[in-house]
Structure formats: C-alpha cells, structure tokens
Amino acid sequence: MEKFKILAEFIKDASSETKDVQTFLFVKDYISKYQLTIDITSKPKKNELIEISTTLKFADKENNEKKSYFEIVYVSIIKLDKSVKEKKDVEKIKLNITAVYTVAQVKKINRCLDNKTNSIISIFSGRMADVGKDPVPIIKKAVRMTRSKTKVEILWASTREPYNYKQAQQLGCQIITMPPKVIEKVSSFGKSFDRLTKDTVKAFLQDSKKSRFKI
Fold first, then answer.
1. Do 52 and 26 fall within a single domain?
2. pTM for the predicted model, two decimal places
C-alpha cells in the first residue's frame, strides 16, 4: 500500500543575477569553477500535505568581485496516507532533481544522493539541442555515473523528436517524457521506406487537391 501520493511538481522559483556586462564576460570564462549545492527541505501543510522544496544553487565560492548567482527551487506536493504516523513511513518519497545540463552537475547531485531514496535526475536534453548542444554524451555519462545506485534514475526531459526515444533507449536512460504528438509518432516506428514514400506521395496529392491549383 502506498504511504503517499505526489499531487504536483513544479518550479517554484528560477532566478539569476549578473551585475553588468563586465561581470558577464568574466563569469563566461570562469563558470566551470562554480559549485552546485543542493538543499532539500520539507514543510507540513494542512490535510496531510507536505511541501518538499529542492533548492539548487550554482555559485562562485571564491572571493571574486565579479560573480553571477543562479538558483532554482523545485517543489513537490505530497499527500500522505492517514495511516502514516512515523517519519520512516515517508523516507521513500521520490525526489526529482530538475533543470540539469552538465556532467559536473550530475556528478555533484549524485554525491548528495544515497541509495535508499528513489530519485530522478532530469536532464533537459531538448533545450540543449535548441541551442546547438548534443545531449547524448551527457546522458551517456550520467547513466554510467549513477549505475551503482539502483534507486537513482536518469530522465531525458524536454523531448523534441520521436528519435529521441530510440536514443534514450540505446543509452540505457531509464525514463523519457514525451508530448502526445511525439508519442503518436513513436507508435508508427517500424514503417519501411517504401511505405513512407507512398504515404508521403498520398499526402502531397491530398494537399494539391485541397489547394485547387491548376496549371
């Protein structure tokens, strides 16, 4: 019997601060030395609800005058079963650590996770591709890095195209989130090129009839 149910998950706050152009130029070359910290807190609410906040801070820990600051607060709303009386009953609540983009971030997150709590590391692969970055090497390293922890899973987030499903599968990525349109296209996997050619020609023919264009 489940002791809890996740009712909602959302980004409560996402903020960044860079003072001026000079600071931006300095941080651009120095950001690889920034450190990621993770803080997880819980707050009891009414009606057996708990708000769990995971705060990810990416900041310069050294005494540089020019620095930027980045913070994301991810919240999960948990509904506890009325039978829950002790803390140990909710120790298995799953964490979803989101907005992850680099191997360095995965490494630091993985260090903070034990192998007692079910946890998900969500890597925003689609958004990487949107800015010309290949997410495959990062997903591959993340899967390998977390392999020893059976309760930690890697999630391919912000899927953009059906083939991402095959890529995630080939890399051993445990979870992938996909919008309905992508799921629909995945269901048509296995079509031959000959079938695709015929379907494409039929679609072109239908479009030409609808346009009523004549030469």
1. yes
2. 0.61
